[in-house]
Automatic annotation (TrEMBL):
Keyword match Transmembrane: no
Listed PANTHER family: 2-OXOGLUTARATE (2OG) AND FE(II)-DEPENDENT OXYGENASE SUPERFAMILY PROTEIN-RELATED
Name under which the protein is recorded: Fe2OG dioxygenase domain-containing protein
Family under the similarity heading: Belongs to the iron/ascorbate-dependent oxidoreductase family.
Top-level taxonomy: Eukaryota, Fungi, Dikarya, Basidiomycota, Agaricomycotina
Length: 353
């Protein structure tokens, strides 16, 4: 259940209702809280109101907190527990499942292999990775019935019920994604089912993330972060956070990064680059990063940051879908049409070693 106290804390100094004008947004940037039950089970008026709120937020900040989203708390807690068990496995066991191909985007990624960034030049990304790699490890999972690209599953004996847990979680996240995309369609004055046949192939990526404890001094190097400033690649991201915190979202009007404080019972949902492109930049893909929460002293000279877990569900259109300017999103397209596969694979190929 959504916490009213968390809402009050988060909204301190901010407007409690309505979106600010651009000038006001520069001073009071916020991530709105959306009651998704109004879209899922409300009257036709409530449904339209919720859709309008979501699209308005995605035009302004690109981020929302979604509560009453329909994924049970126990399901989310179990996914976190199985993720934690996976990352506790020996490194040599995890490395047998290593990520190998951007077309697959499946498998284990060790600490330092990825460097998320807005750069697109391979040499520039390689230099950034060498100087300040992201201090995290991940496990990437795709649709399990793919005839070409297979998931890398640990042995059942090494990670009991990991596979079944993640496949169930993947499916529930996909179903929520479908409903959020329907709300976006309605908010853009399109037919509610406009996106249904463009996303039903479930070409998504479930990413489990582990940020191990690290000495604070190692994060103080220039450009270093647990995950550098970036935007996501697909349509939407559903982010499940633990209570450690560290996610920050950039106010696009000032360039200042604002903490996206974890709120119990909510999912952080943000617009990604491909949906921004699809909407002709009507919907905003906003830069965000993961920084270290306050560190704890371990001796008189050093401090250490706590471990952090999160789970991201990166939503994509069908890989064969053509992404071209949506209706009601301007008369002049800013971008040429592109397939989902060409766009996503290109971004992934530049991100990893």
């Amino acid at each position: 259940m959504f916490s009213l106290r968390a809402s009050v804390i988060f909204r301190t100094g901010l407007k409690s209702r309505g979106l600010a004008t651009i000038s006001e947004a520069a001073a009071s940037f916020r991530i709105p809280l959306i009651d998704f039950a109004k879209f899922q089970a409300g009257s036709s008026t409530e449904k339209k109101t919720a859709a309008t709120e979501i699209v308005s937020a995605f035009k302004s900040s690109g981020f929302i907190y979604l509560y009453n989203h329909g994924i049970p708390a126990a399901t989310i807690q179990n996914a976190f527990a199985k993720s934690d068990e996976f990352f506790r496995m020996p490194v040599d066991v995890k490395e047998t499942l290593k990520w190998e191909d951007p077309r697959s985007n499946r498998g284990y990624v060790k600490i330092g292999r990825e460097r998320v960034t807005q750069a697109t030049d391979a040499a520039e990304i390689a230099a950034l990775r060498e100087k300040a790699p992201d201090f995290k490890e991940t496990m990437e999972i795709g649709r399990d019935w793919d005839s070409v690209w297979k998931n890398q599953w640990p042995a059942e004996a090494d990670a009991p019920a990991f596979k079944t847990t993640m496949l169930d979680f993947f499916q529930q996240c996909h179903e929520l994604h479908v409903h959020v995309m329907r709300s976006i369609a309605l908010g853009l004055d399109l037919e509610e089912g406009f996106f249904d046949e463009k996303i039903q192939e479930q070409s998504h990526n479930l990413r489990l993330l582990s940020y191990p404890p690290i000495k604070r001094a190692l994060l103080d190097n220039e450009g270093q972060a647990r995950a550098g400033a970036h935007s996501d690649y697909g349509t939407l991201t559903l982010l499940f956070q633990d209570q450690v915190g560290g996610l920050e979202v950039q106010n696009p009007h000032t360039g200042v990064f604002i903490p996206a404080t974890p709120i119990p019972g909510t999912i952080v949902v943000n617009v990604a680059d491909l949906l921004a492109r699809w909407s002709n930049d009507v919907l905003r893909s906003t830069l965000h990063r993961v920084v270290a929460p306050p560190a704890k002293p371990i001796n008189s000279h050093e401090t250490i940051t706590p471990a952090r877990q999160s789970i991201a569900f990166f939503c994509n259109p069908n890989f064969s879908a053509e992404i071209a300017c949506l209706p009601n999103c301007g008369t002049v397209a800013k971008y040429p049409p592109i397939s989902t596969e060409a766009y996503i694979v290109g971004r992934l190929a530049a991100t990893y070693t």
